[in-house]
């Protein structure tokens, strides 16, 4: 049996070909066109293990941790034992997974809790990808295995108080070299995991050549301060921080040797932007699951509201959004596996899927009426979390401009 509630409307009896061949990986109800069957059998089994972990370990505690704005850090290492962190890198790929399968794992995680997906994704995605893309062979061998095993937790420090969308040119954090030591000064904002991370990838401009470099700042380094951002109303489990760097000394050996400009940083963002598309899909999927369950149980006027035309219209639109978004996510991941993915491919996916996510969580909230604003119904948390996911890894506007540049050949950035 599936772990989701409700049944997607069927125009005809289900055919055997629509089901996954592996008994351990039955299709989720909202996988209307059976995209999961594109995964190899071992990938379907991996997705099933992640789904089971999220349902067993995370779902029962997610609302409570979200309400308290605390992070279940104790679940990081058990999640890492599933073997999905680092599956993209040769040093840590114990069970190779395609980009489609890696995306599916992110979707399964976000479907239960988008905050937990962010927590995992910052370390296993942004931090590990920075080292995987920009690290020397020695750095990759040193850092990737413990990060993949959950022995270390990573963070990624790019965004600044005065540099968000314009980080390519507007980065203010500086790095000045003195022999074999670099001195970092500046500030970062919205840095997930930073209050407890063992290593934070800090991006700074080299004062000698004005190019962006990457640095591995270890926990406890003098001059590094991370302060939790309070009063958030989205992704409350994620421990975002303001970082201050005051004459932070980093050895040349901890500078990412393969990063020489922001163009190199963009390679990392292209990979992780795909992950945000899958996370957006999962966030919407979680709201859909909860709404279907609610409308098939809630009674008004002597019948369940799932039998009313207006409710069915909302649910059909939500399912269409999920299906279209899943198709885009799958194809962009396939292009990544083929080595043909571009910045514009990733940007279009992020822009489209997050927009459809925002519409979908709103439709699901509406379908649940006033009860939809409570955590108990299951749509309020993804409804709120969607706002943060809609914004990070590049706003819709910035991603649209990346796509627009690909269409016209003209850059419209300020």
Number of domains: 3
CATH class of the largest domain: Mainly Alpha
Q: What share of the residues does DSSP label as strand, in percent? A: 5-15%
Instruction: Report the helical percentage.
Output: 40-55%
- Overall pLDDT level: 90
Could you say what the CATH topology of the largest domain is called? Answer: Butyryl-CoA Dehydrogenase, subunit A, domain 3
Distance between the termini: 52 Å
Class based on secondary structure composition and strand pairing: alpha+beta
Overall shape: it is: globular
Task: Write up this protein.
The protein has 414 residues and is an alpha+beta fold. Helices cover 48% and strands 14% of the residues. The strands form two sheets. Strands 1, 2, 3, 4, 5, 6 and 7 form a seven-stranded mixed sheet that branches. A two-stranded antiparallel sheet has the order 8-9. It is globular. The termini are far apart. Keywords: FAD, Flavoprotein, Oxidoreductase. Its cofactor is FAD. This is Acyl-CoA dehydrogenase family protein.
Summarize the structure.
By secondary structure, the chain is of the alpha+beta class. The chain folds into three domains: 29-149, Butyryl-Coa Dehydrogenase, subunit A, domain 1 (Orthogonal Bundle); 154-260, Butyryl-CoA Dehydrogenase, subunit A, domain 2 (Beta Barrel); 263-408, Butyryl-CoA Dehydrogenase, subunit A, domain 3 (Up-down Bundle), CATH 1.20.140.
Highlighted features:
414 residues, alpha+beta, Butyryl-Coa Dehydrogenase, subunit A, domain 1, Butyryl-CoA Dehydrogenase, subunit A, domain 2, Butyryl-CoA Dehydrogenase, subunit A, domain 3, seven-stranded mixed beta sheet, two-stranded antiparallel ribbon, 48% helix, 14% strand, Acyl-CoA dehydrogenase family protein, oxidoreductase, flavoprotein, FAD, AcylCoA_DH/ox_N
């Amino acid at each position: 049996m599936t772990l989701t509630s409700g049944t997607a409307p069927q125009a005809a009896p289900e055919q055997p070909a629509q089901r996954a061949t592996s008994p351990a990986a039955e299709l989720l109800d909202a996988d209307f066109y059976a995209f999961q069957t594109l995964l190899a059998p071992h990938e379907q089994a991996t997705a099933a293990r992640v789904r089971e972990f999220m349902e067993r370990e995370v779902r029962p505690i997610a609302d409570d941790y979200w309400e308290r704005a605390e992070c279940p850090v104790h679940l990081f290492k058990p999640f890492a034992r599933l073997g999905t962190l680092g599956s993209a890198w040769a040093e840590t790929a114990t069970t190779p997974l395609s980009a489609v399968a890696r995306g599916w794992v992110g979707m399964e995680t976000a479907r239960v809790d988008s905050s937990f997906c962010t927590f995992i994704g910052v370390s296993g995605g942004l931090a590990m990808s920075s080292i995987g893309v920009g690290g020397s062979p020695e750095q990759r061998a040193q850092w990737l295995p413990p990060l993949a095993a959950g022995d270390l937790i990573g963070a990624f420090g790019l965004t600044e108080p005065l540099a968000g969308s314009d980080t390519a040119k507007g980065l203010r954090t500086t790095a000045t070299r003195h022999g074999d030591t670099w001195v970092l000064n500046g500030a970062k904002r919205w840095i997930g995991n930073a209050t407890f991370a063992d290593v934070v990838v800090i991006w700074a401009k080299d004062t000698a050549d004005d190019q962006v470099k990457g640095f591995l700042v270890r926990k406890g380094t003098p001059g590094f301060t991370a302060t939790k951002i309070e009063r958030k109303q989205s992704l409350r489990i994620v421990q975002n921080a303001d970082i201050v760097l005051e004459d932070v000394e980093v050895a040349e050996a901890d500078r990412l040797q393969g990063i020489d400009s922001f163009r190199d940083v963009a390679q990392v963002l292209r990979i992780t932007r795909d992950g945000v598309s899958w996370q957006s899909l999962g966030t919407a999927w979680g709201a859909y699951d909860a709404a279907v369950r609610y409308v098939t149980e809630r009674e008004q006027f002597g019948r369940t509201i799932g039998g009313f035309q207006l409710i069915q219209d909302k649910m059909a639109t939500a399912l269409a959004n999920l299906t279209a978004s899943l198709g885009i996510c799958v194809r962009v991941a396939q292009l990544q596996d083929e080595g043909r993915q571009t910045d514009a491919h990733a940007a279009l996916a992020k822009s489209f899927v997050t927009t459809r996510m925002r519409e979908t969580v709103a439709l699901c909230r509406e379908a649940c009426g006033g009860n939809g604003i409570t955590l108990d119904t299951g749509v309020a948390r993804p409804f709120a979390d969607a706002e943060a996911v809609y914004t990070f890894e590049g706003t819709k506007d910035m991603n649209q401009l990346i796509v627009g540049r690909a269409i016209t050949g003209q850059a419209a950035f300020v």
